[in-house]
Amino acid sequence: MKRLVTAAAAVALTVGIAGAAQAGGTFDAVKARGQLVCGVHTGLAGFSAPDDKGVWAGIDVDICRAVAVSMFGDAQKVKFVPLTTSNRFTALQSGEIDMLARNTTVTLTRDTTNGMNFAPVNFYDGQGFIVAKKLNVKSAKELKGATVCVQSGTTTEQNLADYFRSNKMDFKPVTFEKQDEAVAAFTGGRCDVYTSDKSQLGAIRASQVKVPEDYVILPETISKEPFAAAVRHGDDQWFDLVKWSVYAMIEAEESGVTSKNVDEMVKSTDPNLQRLLGVNGGMGKALGVDDKFAYNIIKQVGNYGESFDRNLGAGSKVKLERGLNNLWKNGGLQYAIPFR
Amino acid sequence: MTLRATDRPSGVPWYNDEKTRGVLYQVVLLAVVLFVGWWLVSNTLRNLEQRQISTGFGFLWREAGFAIAEQRIRFEPTDSYARALIVGLLNTLEVSAIGIVLATLLGTVVGVARLSTNWLIARLATVYVEVVRNIPLLLQLFFWYAFITQSLPGVREALHPLPGVFLSNRGLAVPVPEFNEGQAWALVGGAIGIAASIFLARWARKRQDATGQPFPTIFAALGLIIVFSFIGWLIGGAHSALSIPEKSGFGFSGGAELSPEFAALLIGLTVYTAAFIAEIVRGGVLAVAYGQTEAAMALGLKSGLVMRLILLPQALRVIVPPMTSQYLNLFKNSTLAIAIGFRDFVSVDDTVMNQTGQAIECVALIMAVYLTVSLLISSFMNWYNNKVALRGSTR
């Protein structure tokens, strides 16, 4: 099935029948269409998954909604296209989607030879290991000779090989196309270890195993996985809009603006707030959209902290710590570039 | 009677001439095909360039950086993508080749069983065929994989039916002879045995043609191969050291392992394709006129011999062409391996595609590989078909 989609996307790239045939025209194409087409995960709790009413939710979904708000002032004007790890890049390259917000790690080759540009990082993750508690493993350094279940087509496979190689340990990978199959093989005892990004390990431990206490996530983090939304290379106006839509959410959290108090804040005389919320400064016009784009994002989607809590943090099932994803002034890495 | 070009009555314009038209249509068709091909290629290249995506197969020589558990040739993460793809291709070929042989054997047995006069055997074979060929292969693969990994015990509780043999949800670990230069002699002995068997078979056929005396060729050939291999082994120094699997750490060390992924894929492909082959065999046997059976029986042949000497050789002519399609199906169905974690060519290619982002090149590689191997399979089958076809028959 997935191969079909990949092949179809490759064909689309070949024939050039895709919507945005011209690189550089996405901004106008989206505007003319009246709807944003956003590539997301097929279903990863906290990042992008349909809820029990079939409404897409997650921090990646919120990025898509924020961009739709910037463009149209309406968070509903998005069509979500669920993509696998294998067909996500082809879908973007071929123009099938306008942007990709699918927990995708930023790397040099993806930025260059794969023809993409990355918006600011919206989630800092790292790869780790989960093992059954009864194996009595305390550290990933003790995994010599272990059988490791892993999902194919990600940076995960490469990090795994790198880690074992640099620690001079051998291992047996068992590679699956889909995460569910890999997790099922792991919990079924085919593998000693399952490896993936730690946020996913947390989600799996919370919802995909019978007794969460029977499994431990090992302390080592073996890679840096900064996730960001991607657009096609050479599409500058569109890239700017996506980039600043993300920054608007982070800046809002930094300035203490939330979806609840934004109508109060808009009356503030603080020049920084006035620029962010479009009271003056012409920030939106510079991007080619409504000056109130940030106000609308905060009103309809919320600031970065609200999005995180709702999807991944205390207010969600996944219950991740903010950690690296906290604001820089709270000891994390999230930092917005000034709105001026 | 068709008119030849020269028969054209004067006065008919050239464009109404049958021969000229024939040529014209071919030229136009060729031009259209070439134009579409050129348009696709140039459009792709232009689109890729516009999006600043690098093209070409240079990436194949970069370091792969990922590991493959199932390898017939040595593969390390430091090796190139090209080598990784070869490892995947060998896995595909291995599972397909073994699958084709097993599916043919099983399919023939089941197909003949459906024709059996024994009520129970015939019904069992019918049930098998109808159940297996009406369930999607992917589901069957999931079933076999789940069956193997969930029903067998874990490594620490591995079944231990014979010394050195372990059966667990990690697969089957068995002892294998440790390789040693002396054992090359055993292989040489085996080769001599095979060569001798071929000569023996020719001699036996000639003698049977001349005198009608049959010769037990199969048993004699087996004996020859075993005896010569044994002599070779003795010459090589009679090494009998075995590499025996032992529990160590998380799994086993030493010996040879058959992984659950390989086993599930092989069983799934074999069982599924055998159901189709059984129907082809049944159809082929039924296609032989009943008079042949009656004539053979009138000569006093036993029913097994009737099948082996009279019916199957004639049925083969009907069986071989559709069998080619089944072999091709099995080969192409092996790409479902990715769903149950077996590293076949497509699965490795999938990883390569994601690490390098070279989707078009990687999809092109899949097409090229499967097309090439499929054509090889069909040309071999066509050759074989010509061999079993009736002499002098016009095709």
UniProtKB/TrEMBL annotation, chain A:
<feature type="domain" description="Solute-binding protein family 3/N-terminal">
    <location>
        <begin position="35"/>
        <end position="265"/>
    </location>
</feature>
<keyword id="KW-0732">Signal</keyword>
<dbReference type="InterPro" id="IPR001638">
    <property type="entry name" value="Solute-binding_3/MltF_N"/>
</dbReference>
<dbReference type="GO" id="GO:0006865">
    <property type="term" value="P:amino acid transport"/>
</dbReference>
<dbReference type="InterPro" id="IPR018313">
    <property type="entry name" value="SBP_3_CS"/>
</dbReference>
<keyword id="KW-0813">Transport</keyword>
<comment type="similarity">
    <text>Belongs to the bacterial solute-binding protein 3 family.</text>
</comment>
<dbReference type="Pfam" id="PF00497">
    <property type="entry name" value="SBP_bac_3"/>
</dbReference>
<protein>
    <submittedName>
        <fullName>ABC transporter substrate-binding protein</fullName>
    </submittedName>
</protein>
<dbReference type="InterPro" id="IPR051455">
    <property type="entry name" value="Bact_solute-bind_prot3"/>
</dbReference>
<feature type="signal peptide">
    <location>
        <begin position="1"/>
        <end position="23"/>
    </location>
</feature>
UniProtKB/TrEMBL annotation, chain B:
<feature type="transmembrane region" description="Helical">
    <location>
        <begin position="362"/>
        <end position="384"/>
    </location>
</feature>
<dbReference type="InterPro" id="IPR010065">
    <property type="entry name" value="AA_ABC_transptr_permease_3TM"/>
</dbReference>
<dbReference type="GO" id="GO:0043190">
    <property type="term" value="C:ATP-binding cassette (ABC) transporter complex"/>
</dbReference>
<feature type="transmembrane region" description="Helical">
    <location>
        <begin position="215"/>
        <end position="242"/>
    </location>
</feature>
<comment type="similarity">
    <text>Belongs to the binding-protein-dependent transport system permease family. HisMQ subfamily.</text>
</comment>
<feature type="transmembrane region" description="Helical">
    <location>
        <begin position="23"/>
        <end position="41"/>
    </location>
</feature>
<feature type="transmembrane region" description="Helical">
    <location>
        <begin position="262"/>
        <end position="281"/>
    </location>
</feature>
<dbReference type="InterPro" id="IPR043429">
    <property type="entry name" value="ArtM/GltK/GlnP/TcyL/YhdX-like"/>
</dbReference>
<feature type="transmembrane region" description="Helical">
    <location>
        <begin position="184"/>
        <end position="203"/>
    </location>
</feature>
<keyword id="KW-0029">Amino-acid transport</keyword>
<dbReference type="GO" id="GO:0022857">
    <property type="term" value="F:transmembrane transporter activity"/>
</dbReference>
<keyword id="KW-0813">Transport</keyword>
<dbReference type="GO" id="GO:0006865">
    <property type="term" value="P:amino acid transport"/>
</dbReference>
<keyword id="KW-1003">Cell membrane</keyword>
<feature type="transmembrane region" description="Helical">
    <location>
        <begin position="127"/>
        <end position="147"/>
    </location>
</feature>
<dbReference type="InterPro" id="IPR000515">
    <property type="entry name" value="MetI-like"/>
</dbReference>
<keyword id="KW-0472">Membrane</keyword>
<feature type="domain" description="ABC transmembrane type-1">
    <location>
        <begin position="89"/>
        <end position="382"/>
    </location>
</feature>
<feature type="transmembrane region" description="Helical">
    <location>
        <begin position="95"/>
        <end position="115"/>
    </location>
</feature>
<keyword id="KW-1133">Transmembrane helix</keyword>
<keyword id="KW-0812">Transmembrane</keyword>
<dbReference type="Pfam" id="PF00528">
    <property type="entry name" value="BPD_transp_1"/>
</dbReference>
